[in-house]
Amino acid sequence: MNGDTIPRLGLGTYGRTGDEGVAALLKAIEIGYRHLDTAQSYDTEQPVGEAVRRSGLPRGDVFITTKVADTRLDKAQFMPSVRKSLETIGVDQVDLLLIHWPSHRDAVPFEDYMTALVEAQRQGYARLIGVSNFSVALLAKARALIGNGTLATNQVEIHPYLQSPNLVAHARQIGLQLTAYQPLAKGEIGADPVLNRIAGQHGVTVAAVALAFLMGEGHVVIPASGSETNLRANFAALDVSLGEAEMAEIRTLDRGYRRINPEKSPGWDD
Ligand SMILES: NC(=O)c1ccc[n+]([C@@H]2O[C@H](COP(=O)([O-])OP(=O)(O)OC[C@H]3O[C@@H](n4cnc5c(N)ncnc54)[C@H](OP(=O)(O)O)[C@@H]3O)[C@@H](O)[C@H]2O)c1
């Protein structure tokens, strides 16, 4: 694993709780997934750690991301919550630590949790640090505070129906990796006629085409599945190579369709 990069296909672990979750994660590792995305709020930190240990793989072979919940961004809770995450996962360090959501209406001052994030990396709790659900405006604010190149990624909802052209252009300009969550729009892209036609031409699933498209755009993808068939289909995206005409056609599917938009969302400017 390259020290500075995020494996471009990871596994979303939302919903993979308990023993069933551990079994699904072990299956994913067996299939070849080496990047697991968890969060303090998913209840999957323990299953992730357990699956990695049970897999018998060296710790360094699996990239683990976790996220500090927006309810724990204040100075008193931030660092203890990170230490608790490490304890729950059972590791000394995560590969990537994210701010899950920016603090709604600055209930916690931006400077406080961004500097705490940098401090968590300095203390060795995280190899890489990043953010999630940040707008272009918040990324600019972060850069002004902690400098360019400090953040390894911004994890946001991106899929063929929400391609976020402004955010993508900004990220390319500043050299920031985007990570696409809900890359399959929770399965909603499955009936898309254009994706189905392209999938048929390649003899692969619609999901594999969507993921190959997003990786082709330069994004890391973290699809989730509890089914072995779908885990395999999604992993197979690594072997799908789309032509420029196919990429261009899939770009036209963007319709700004956002699935995750809670009240705590920042003003989206993507
Ligand atoms: N940072 C954030 O705020 C944030 C927010 C949301 C999600 N995330 C992360 O992103 C990950 C992925 O998001 P998600 O789980 O919500 O959505 P998703 O990956 O877009 O979709 C998962 C859904 O699609 C189905 N599916 C998966 N592969 C499929 C395939 N090949 N064919 C047909 N259906 C398929 C799954 O069902 P089966 O289980 O039956 O396969 C599941 O219902 C999460 O697990 C989490 O790690 C982060």
Describe this structure in words.
- The protein has 270 residues and is α/β, with parallel strands linked by helices.
- The protein has one domain: NADP-dependent oxidoreductase domain (TIM Barrel, Alpha-Beta Barrel).
- Helix content is 41%, strand content 13%.
- It contains ten helices and eight strands.
- It has helices at residues 18-31, 45-55, 75-89, 110-122, 136-146, 165-174, 193-202, 206-216, 228-235, 244-251; strands at 11-12, 35-37, 63-68, 94-99, 126-132, 153-157, 177-181, 220-221.
- The chain has an eight-stranded parallel sheet.
- Strand 1 (11-12), helix 1 and strand 2 form a beta-alpha-beta unit.
- Helix 1 (18-31) crosses helix 2 (45-55).
- The protein is globular, with a radius of gyration of 18 Å.
- The model has no long low-confidence stretch (mean pLDDT 97).
- Bound molecules: NADP nicotinamide-adenine-dinucleotide phosphate (NAP).
Strand order of the biggest β-sheet: 1-2-3-4-5-6-7-8
Task: State the low-pLDDT regions, or none.
Answer: none
Radius of gyration: 18 Å
How many structural units, i.e. domains?
A: 1
Number of helices: 10
> What is the CATH-assigned architecture?
Alpha-Beta Barrel
At the fourth level of CATH, the homologous superfamily is NADP-dependent oxidoreductase domain
> Which percent band covers the strand fraction?
5-15%
CATH class: Alpha Beta
Largest sheet: 8 strands, parallel
Small-molecule binders here are: NADP nicotinamide-adenine-dinucleotide phosphate
Order of helices and strands: EHEHEHEHEHEHEHHEHH
The strand count comes to: 8
CATH fold name? TIM Barrel
Instruction: Report, as a whole number of angstroms, the end-to-end distance.
Output: 31 Å
Structural class: alpha/beta
Q: How would you sum up the global shape?
A: globular
